[in-house]
Inverse folding.
């Protein structure tokens, strides 16, 4: 073993060659000297020494008058190079793990849907933000702006072939042509969890626990994020108090959801234009300013569904152990028209970011598509805002590229042998990068760059003994290993 050179010795062979060191004592040493000292033995220079080709040289079909295309993706969309893709995969893995813990099953739907699925006459902002067009068959289609209608369509399609309750989740891409701000893009990925067939508040309590579990897995605390909770039935009760027609309810909800985004005067003007009296407008805004469930009970009484359901939810929150995460806020109504009961949204307590996620109960959505209604509730949780929050809190994980082994043949004649070794290790579940036509110094830098654990050198003399040379890159230990013992 003493006659076999170390990897460090291999790296300094050019210096030894220059002083005429005798290498006859070791075939491995003799090979290394010839590889690193003789120009004729060098197979390929490192990539850094390669000449740079122009686009015209790389592709003869490009004419002199051609110009490069814009390499940026369309405004409001993203590329995912490896670093960003690792972060996305990590986040999605956490979405999936929380869903698994709560016994949800994964489903998926096409990104391209029928436009009719998302066109509603409630004045919702979302209907003005659709990426919609006519396809070549004359059909009106849309890139889905949200996922819940697609889910409802699948539930209707499945019909009685599935038994209730359904607990489904999905992670899908959504598109909205909207004004971009921090954490708001025109395309984003969204984690949805939905429960069909449970009419009691238990369903909302389960969904909120899923959100809290996700935050806790990511290292976010209740001091960082809170979850505002209210109910559409609160506003419904207020409208009944002022004898406002029920057919105006959805439109009032859409306007009220703008609270904080437009001035009080603008909101009053929009509500009055619907036919709501100024007295009722003042009553609505007064109730929406309430932040205490007990104060709400004083206004609405304790017998109505709004108060009783909210009290039940807060009681369950104590049992689940996440009461410190949630708070009552009557101003939360959510902007989508189909919500019918409890609604909630997670928010950054420092107020720097938009809502992190939101959801609620939508018991009457299926009937808008011509089917029988089924009690349902769910939430959507986007990928963009949570990443911004993780950056803000310095909670982004180290997700650098990691490889178990680099296999490197020291002679071209050993390329096939190196391929066999790499294949064997891969079949055992190890991640292996097979490198050829590089200098050993480059291989070491490459190993550091990709976080490799081991370097496996396939050399002539070791191979003759049925072995390879292995260097543990974390401990710097170096040893010879028999091929059949390599794992």
């Amino acid at each position: 073993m003493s006659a076999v050179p170390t990897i460090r010795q291999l790296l300094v062979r050019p210096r030894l060659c220059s002083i005429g060191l005798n290498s006859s004592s070791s075939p491995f040493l003799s090979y290394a000297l010839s590889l690193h000292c003789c120009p004729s033995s060098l197979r390929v220079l490192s990539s850094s020494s390669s000449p740079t080709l122009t686009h015209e040289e790389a592709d003869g079909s490009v004419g002199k008058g051609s110009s490069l295309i814009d390499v940026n993706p369309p405004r409001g969309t993203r590329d995912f190079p490896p670093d960003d893709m690792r972060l996305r995969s990590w986040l999605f893995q956490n979405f999936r793990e929380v869903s698994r813990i709560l016994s949800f099953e994964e489903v998926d739907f096409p990104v391209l849907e029928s436009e009719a699925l998302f066109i509603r006459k409630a004045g919702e902002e979302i209907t003005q933000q659709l990426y919609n067009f006519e396809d070549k068959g004359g059909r009106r289609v849309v890139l889905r702006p949200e996922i819940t209608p697609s889910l409802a369509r699948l539930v209707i399609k499945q019909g009685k072939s599935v038994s209730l309750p359904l607990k489904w989740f999905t992670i899908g891409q959504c598109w909205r042509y909207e004004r971009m701000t921090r954490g708001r893009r025109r395309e984003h990925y969204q984690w949805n969890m939905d429960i069909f067939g449970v009419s009691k508040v238990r369903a909302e309590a389960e969904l909120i626990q899923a959100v809290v579990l996700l935050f806790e897995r990511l290292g976010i605390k209740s001091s960082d994020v809170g979850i505002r909770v209210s109910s559409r039935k609160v506003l419904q009760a207020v409208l009944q108090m002022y004898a406002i027609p029920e057919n105006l309810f959805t439109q009032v909800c859409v306007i009220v959801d703008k609270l904080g985004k437009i001035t009080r005067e603008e909101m009053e003007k929009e509500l009055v234009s619907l036919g709501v009296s100024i007295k009722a407008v003042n009553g609505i805004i007064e109730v929406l300013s309430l932040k205490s469930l007990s104060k709400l009970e004083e206004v609405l009484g304790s017998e109505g569904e709004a108060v009783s359901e909210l009290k039940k939810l807060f009681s369950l929150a104590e049992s689940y152990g996440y009461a410190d995460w949630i708070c009552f806020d009557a101003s939360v109504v959510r902007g989508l028209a189909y919500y019918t009961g409890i609604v909630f949204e997670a928010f950054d307590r420092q107020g720097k970011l938009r809502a992190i996620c939101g959801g609620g109960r939508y018991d009457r959505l299926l009937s808008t598509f011509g089917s029988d209604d089924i009690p349902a509730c769910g939430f959507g949780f986007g990928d963009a805002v949570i990443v911004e929050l993780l950056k803000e809190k310095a909670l982004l994980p180290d997700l650098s590229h990691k490889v178990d082994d680099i296999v490197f043949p020291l002679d071209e004649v050993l390329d096939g042998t190196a391929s066999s070794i790499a294949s064997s290790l891969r079949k055992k579940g190890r991640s292996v990068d097979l490198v050829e036509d590089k200098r050993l110094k480059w291989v070491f830098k490459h190993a550091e760059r990709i976080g490799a654990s081991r370097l496996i050198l396939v050399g002539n003399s070791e191979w003759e003994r049925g072995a390879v040379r292995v260097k543990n890159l974390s401990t710097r230990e170096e040893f010879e290993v028999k091929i059949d013992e390599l794992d």
